Amino acid sequence: MGIKEKLRGDLTQAIRSRDELTSGTIRMVLSAITNEEVAGKSARELSEAEVIAVLSRETKKRREAAEAFDLGERPERAALERAESEVIGRYLPAQLSGAELEKLIAEAIAETGASGPAGMGLVMKVLSPKIAGKADGGAVSAAVKAALAN
User: Fold this and answer.
1) Structural domains in the chain?
2) Tens-digit pLDDT profile for residues 69-121
3) Is 146 exposed, middle or buried (0-12, 13-18, 19+ CB in 10 A)?
């Protein structure tokens, strides 16, 4: 069963159990997936990797919105955004631990032979497909920068 099918099944369950947070969040995510599918010249079905990318993007939006609401002293809205992020997170692959991420970065640096800040693009190009949806891009970028600085 693909992620989209799981989302649709879980939406039905959430509606039946009157879970407004989950049903509303899943509706927003399915809408984002549909918008991505119909964008461009021809409508097409998204691959699992593309669906994960949409989910990751939606999670990032919620995280950034929660931070903005915290700064604006709106804790109730920040809590709602974090709760939505948690719902979306259920459908993302398990996040990489720090040690796993460091190992992948070391392998990518060895594979590309990169050294110094100039090699960051090469390392990220090799690393990105391996970590898609499994780690925050900003954290990965910072870790790669730190590894290349040594």
Assistant:
1) 3-89 (1.10.1510.10), 98-149 (1.10.10.410)
2) 999 999 999 999 999 999 999 998 888 787 888 888 888 888 888 777 777 88
3) exposed
